[in-house]
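Students often ask why we bother encoding 3D structure as a string. The short answer is that it lets us treat folding as translation between two languages. Here is a chain of 649 residues written in the first language.
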Amino acid sequence: MLVWCGAVGLLSGAVTNAPPPQKHWSFQPVRKPAVPAVKNVAWVKSPVDTFILAKIEERKWQPAPAASPAEWLRRVYFDLTGLPPSPEEVAAFGADNSPTARERVVDRLLASERYGERWAQHWLDVVRYAESEGFEYDRHVPEAWRFRDYVITSLNADKPFDRFITEQIAGDELDPENRDCLAASVFHRLGAVRRNAGNPDIALSRNEVLTERTDIIGTAFLGLTIGCARCHDHKLDPLSQKDYYRLQAYFAATEEHNVPLATPAERQAWDARTKELQAEIATLKTQAKSAEGAARMKLNAQIDALEAKLPAPLATIPATWNDAAKRTPITVLKRGVWELKGEPVGPRPPDALVADARAELPADTENPRTQLARWIADARNPLTARVIVNRIWQHHFGAGLVKTPNDFGLKGDRPSHPELLDWLAASLVENGWRLKPLHRMLVLSSTYAEASASANAAAARLDPENRMLSHFNRRRLSAEEIRDAMLAVAGRLNLRTGGPSVMVPVDAELVKLLYKPTQWQPAKDATEHDRRSIYLFAKRNLRLPFMEAFDAPALQTTCARRESSTHAPQALELLNGKFSNELAAAFAQRLEAECGGDSPRLVGRAYQLATGRTPTDAERKLALAFLRDQPPREFALTMFNLNAFLYVP
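And here it is in the second language, the structure alphabet:
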């Protein structure tokens, strides 16, 4: 199979078909099983349904009835785009009685730019995307947002997943003049980096960087906790410490390389202005050293003001490249301690995942990460396709076929439907590694269209986690979906795509906790504050309180699966938070503008916008009684707190 990046092609490397010596299911070659026979053939709309129904019929259960058309529509909108359908879209779907109505909705959503924005967030979680380096200084990575835009654009274009992998691992090797390939290689800059001041131990810092880059390869692409083999042989999986450092050897020459995009004239003007301001800052700092009390505070304030005026960094891509002169000699480190160097090793995949007795590559192998990408993206790698189809299944059905999406090892979860997992993995490869056909097949299945209430007591009692999917798993919206839905319902959502990330206003007390408060400068254009959540600046040392309350990840390590907690601060954010109340006011203004003083009409419109349906008689009665005593803004705020708004049925 050919994998392309720009004008440069990459032939897949040779991997033998012989099974590896380990017998664990995930280390075995993917073989496409036959579709099982079922009794209730009329229920089947997709091959996926036969695998699910076979397990249900085996237990003499019945699948749940179908969800209502409005429930299915809200479900598929949020799953594919992260946004609710408008009342007009709900009405149009309800009036379309053609047998292909659902197919047309799905095709339209998959073709929307909103699809890439939603599904990019899932991948950014896995690769622990952030735009700052963490630790004390939390220095910003210059224009790391280019990686985020690369992911969104790639998913919208339905770039084959094997190519998507290859560009991230080796984009700068494949085509160093191609901006997309360079933006993909920002992948290697996403980990936390300790920048030591004073007398830094450069070797130790380098080792931490290599560790970050090695560990994420295992978790993101292979679904293995290979980082556990850094200090000793893996205690659970057949991964030796030598395997770990052989994998690390692929990155021995990988160094940071900020690729400038500015013209010479832009660079000259930037240098001149920067030198001018830095000279003034240096003078004030000298004065501040000898000043005391109020005088010193005044000088420090002047320094902060001048630092805020420093010109923004010039356009760049924070990419990587191979620097042979700085290649780090890779050895097996005893107990993982940098100073305790053992046997030298060269690049090679882990023994458990290759069947042949291939030798290590030379330490100075040209384009080593290209060699690594060949092996990971090869269709015969037993893990890669299984891992990604499991991640996609998880986001559509609430849990993966393997519940531990970053751990396909011996102590990870066994698949609930192993034949289905392999059927999906094999189908993905057969379809050229394209993800959109996989999404389409899953969301058009009868399994996906089930109601979220169990069809019988036996299934609820014997399968409390609903691993057999006898009904659909209702889920709470993610932090990004809640925020974006509130903006959409209030009529404030700014759908501008791409570009530099946006800093939004936050409490001054949080900004003061940063190493330099000047690191957080909210966008001056207030409409930018209403961009989709994926475009908000992802800073490790400043988590937005609203997003944190609703379980957005901490960005320090890979997040394989979002938690969905329920606690008091969530209600406090939705009822008392500044963001919620501002949007409630905007929502109320929208309702009054569209409905005037007609309270019954206002209630109906509010429910249509916020929940995708009309209110029940009881809801309408309560809402009208509420509006007799409370202003529309309080009613709008109440709508944001409804389970019907916060949950996908």
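Translate back mentally: Residues 90 and 518 are 45 Å apart (CA to CA). Keep this in mind for the problem set.
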